[in-house]
């Protein structure tokens, strides 16, 4: 039997602490759509997406009402387009992208991920076409998200790809200059990209995934913060071990919500249930911030000494609670630190507490990487590529996923603000020190070999 | 469960009065002495008022008249209202909602007369049975808030979205927040 306390606590989490399902992402395999004719491929893609995802938004809305829990985003993830469109010419990739964009619009989702290529060990013809068309696709479409895996612990870091991505980021930023380089917010560069990540911009349907699958990303920085505050106000003497325990229990609750919703959406759509991604994904709403959790843990601001340790504690506790709550945990599953999407982080940059170097350090112990960071428009492609290389090295050598989503903001510099709107938020421009000091290193190209720790068989 | 019941008869005993130590002991002593086995029991205290309902199975040798007399005497001695009633077989089955889904309705806001009626009128119109109902004042975000909790069975043939809307609209009319959510969300969040 439920106790009144349990019911009241649940209502509070939902009403006052921003507990929600951040995204329900439907993965759809496009492998059976392959054709050497662009027209044929596009017809098949459109018809398959409509067939599988046509009822998705309505189902999500019904389930959201039934449980009284908001499902903030409904999204699609598809097989990497570099593979699906391998037989096409470069200019035809843009046609495929427009088809995906229209199909997403038709079924009512806000993003479709999978304009992707995996090039950690080298390029196919299709991979090169896809990367070359990124600026055009991300500036001309609304719903498409792109991701490129340039490194893995098994393969090492494809530095040619890293350099190409530095250039692509720069070009996308210029192509979307009027929106402060917003096109770059729809592109993630990855090391060890997960095949079942439901979060954008990095969602795609991996090669080992089923025909169609529901993956869910829950959220809850607000809930974690409130629980910590409540415990701290109780007047009991608490150690960091106690606080970790509180975070763990909260993460358990949040994950259970995700699994309940994911299973029911999957069942009603007649597709497989995949995973729950138990990431703490902040929003620009006050009270829904990873930065504020660190302040609860006694730090003046995220970015000050102690931040990496506090974030490590948070990230680990989140994983432990989530792993107990569900046997199907996947995706990124950790605490996110996307600067523009977390109001507190953005302010920490503005006040000078949070620097690019500290962000990079923190990504060694949390999910997912240098995320949604607005940098001065003047930073050159080679420097951007070198920053990407550093972040990839953290992922590759620590056996974890890392990603980079940098947004060079044309015409803006430190002291200015980039405004993206909605969940993407706004951000103070972060200072990039030592610009144009890495071009010789980046110029070598080739591949940084896989670490010795990758040889495990 | 006792071995020998007299023809499957059950008796309900309801007890009300000012709360104090010894009420349950007093009642259960009489039940024991009159060869009755307690089959089910529920007890609560609201604002100092004790209320208990006990369903008992009279065993062999138990006499209904003697039981009633002994409980009447106890009631007079210690100022309790005690009612004894024989349950017929239909009553024991309880209300059957048919195929139904369990939901929780919560009403939050300023207390005022007519709140329970406003909500339950809608439920009664739709033939929705309440399985549990409680109301209390609780601290939410350091403020006291009045909250009612209804657990209900919504028959499958009813449209949940319509009932949700009707409840929400009624809540808006009378200045309270009304939510109706499937019980599983509370279980998922709170129970292992």
Structural commentary:
The complex is a heterodimer of chains A (457) and B (192). Chain A is of the alpha/beta class. The mean pLDDT of chain A is 95. Helices cover 44% and strands 17% of the residues of chain A. The radius of gyration of chain A is 21 Å and the shape is globular. Chain A has helices at residues 4-16, 38-53, 56-67, 81-84, 90-107, 125-132, 134-140, 159-175, 221-233, 240-269, 290-296, 307-325, 343-350, 356-362, 381-397, 439-443, and strands at residues 21-28, 71-78, 111-118, 144-152, 156-158, 187-191, 212-218, 272-277, 369-376, 402-409, 417-419, 426-428, 447-448. Chain A starts with a helix and ends in a 9-residue tail after the last strand. In chain A, helix 2 (38-53) runs parallel beside helix 5. By secondary structure, chain B is an alpha+beta fold. Chain B folds into two domains: 10-93, Alpha-Beta Plaits (2-Layer Sandwich); 100-190, ACT domain (Alpha-Beta Plaits, 2-Layer Sandwich). Chain B is 34% helix and 41% strand. Chain B has six helices and eight strands, in the order βαββαβαβαββαβα. In chain B, the strands form two sheets. Chain B has a four-stranded antiparallel beta sheet with strand order 2-3-1-4. In chain B, strands 6-7-5-8 form a four-stranded antiparallel beta sheet, with helices on both faces. In chain B, a hairpin with a 2-residue loop joins strand 2 (36-46) and strand 3 (49-58). In chain B, helix 1 (23-33) packs antiparallel against helix 2 (64-78). Chain B is globular. Mean pLDDT of chain B is 89; it is low at 1-6. Chain A binds chain B through residues 1-2, 4, 6-13, 16, 62, 65-69, 253, 256-257, 259-260, and chain B through 104, 106, 108, 132, 134, 136, 138, 140-141, 147, 149, 151, 160-161, 164, 179-191.
């Amino acid at each position: 039997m439920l106790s009144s306390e349990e019911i009241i606590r649940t209502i509070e989490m939902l009403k006052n602490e921003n507990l929600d399902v951040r995204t329900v992402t439907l993965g759809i395999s496009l492998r059976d759509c392959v054709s050497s004719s662009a027209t044929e491929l596009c017809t098949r893609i459109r018809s398959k997406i409509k067939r599988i995802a046509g009822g998705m938004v309505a189902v999500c809305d019904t389930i959201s009402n039934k449980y009284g829990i908001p499902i903030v985003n409904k999204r699609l993830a598809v097989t990497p387009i570099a593979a699906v469109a391998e037989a096409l010419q470069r200019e035809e990739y843009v046609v495929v992208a427009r088809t995906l964009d229209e199909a997403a619009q038709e079924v009512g989702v806000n993003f479709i991920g999978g304009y992707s290529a995996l090039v950690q060990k080298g390029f196919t013809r299709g991979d090169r076409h896809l990367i070359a068309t990124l600026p055009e696709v991300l500036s001309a479409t609304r719903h498409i998200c792109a991701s490129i895996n340039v490194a893995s612990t098994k393969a090492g870091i494809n530095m040619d790809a890293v350099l190409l991505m530095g250039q692509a980021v720069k070009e996308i930023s210029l192509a979307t200059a009027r929106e402060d380089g917003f096109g770059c917010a729809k592109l993630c560069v990855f090391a060890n990209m997960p095949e079942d990540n439901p979060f954008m911009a990095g969602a795609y349907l991996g090669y080992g995934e089923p025909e169609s699958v529901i993956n869910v990303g829950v959220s809850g920085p607000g809930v974690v913060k409130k629980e910590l505050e409540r415990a701290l106000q109780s007047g009991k003497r608490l150690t960091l071990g106690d606080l970790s325990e509180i975070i763990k229990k909260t993460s358990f609750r949040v994950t259970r919500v995700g699994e309940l919703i994911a299973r029911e959406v999957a069942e009603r759509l007649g597709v497989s249930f995949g995973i729950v991604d138990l990431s703490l994904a902040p929003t620009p709403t006050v009270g829904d911030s990873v930065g504020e959790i660190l302040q609860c843990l006694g730090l003046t601001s995220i970015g000050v000494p102690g931040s990496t340790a506090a974030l490590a504690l948070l990230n680990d506790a989140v994983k432990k609670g989530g792993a107990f709550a569900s046997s199907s945990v996947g995706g990124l599953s950790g605490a996110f630190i996307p600067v523009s999407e977390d109001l507190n982080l953005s302010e920490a940059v503005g006040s000078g507490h949070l620097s690019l170097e500290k962000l990079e350090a923190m990504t060694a112990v949390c999910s997912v990487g240098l995320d949604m960071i607005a940098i001065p428009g003047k930073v050159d492609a080679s420097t951007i590529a070198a920053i990407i290389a550093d972040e990839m090295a953290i992922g590759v050598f620590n056996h974890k996923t890392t990603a980079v989503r940098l947004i060079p903001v044309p015409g803006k510099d430190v002291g200015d603000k980039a405004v993206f709107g909605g969940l993407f938020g706004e951000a103070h421009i972060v200072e990039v020190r030592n610009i144009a000091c890495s071009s010789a290193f980046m110029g070598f190209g080739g591949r940084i070999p896989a670490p010795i720790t990758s040889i495990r068989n | 469960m006792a071995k020998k019941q007299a023809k499957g008869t059950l008796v309900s005993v309801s007890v009300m009065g000012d709360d104090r130590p010894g009420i349950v002991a007093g009642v259960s002593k009489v039940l024991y002495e009159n060869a009755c086995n307690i089959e089910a029991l529920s007890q609560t205290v609201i604002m100092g008022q004790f209320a208990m309902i006990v369903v008992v199975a009279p065993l062999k040798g138990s006499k209904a008249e003697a039981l009633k007399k002994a409980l009447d005497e106890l009631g007079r001695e210690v100022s309790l209202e005690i009612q004894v009633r024989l349950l017929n077989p239909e009553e024991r089955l309880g209300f059957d909602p048919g195929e139904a889904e369990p939901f929780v309705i919560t009403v939050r806001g300023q207390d005022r007369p007519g709140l329970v009626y406003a909500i339950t009128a809608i439920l009664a119109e739709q033939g929705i049975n309440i399985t549990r109902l409680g109301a209390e004042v609780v601290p939410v975000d350091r403020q006291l808030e009045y909250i009612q909790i209804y657990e209900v069975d919504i028959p499958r043939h009813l449209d949940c979205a319509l009932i949700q809307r009707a409840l929400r609209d009624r809540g808006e009319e009378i200045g309270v927040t009304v939510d109706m959510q499937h019980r599983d969300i509370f279980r998922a969040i709170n129970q292992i």
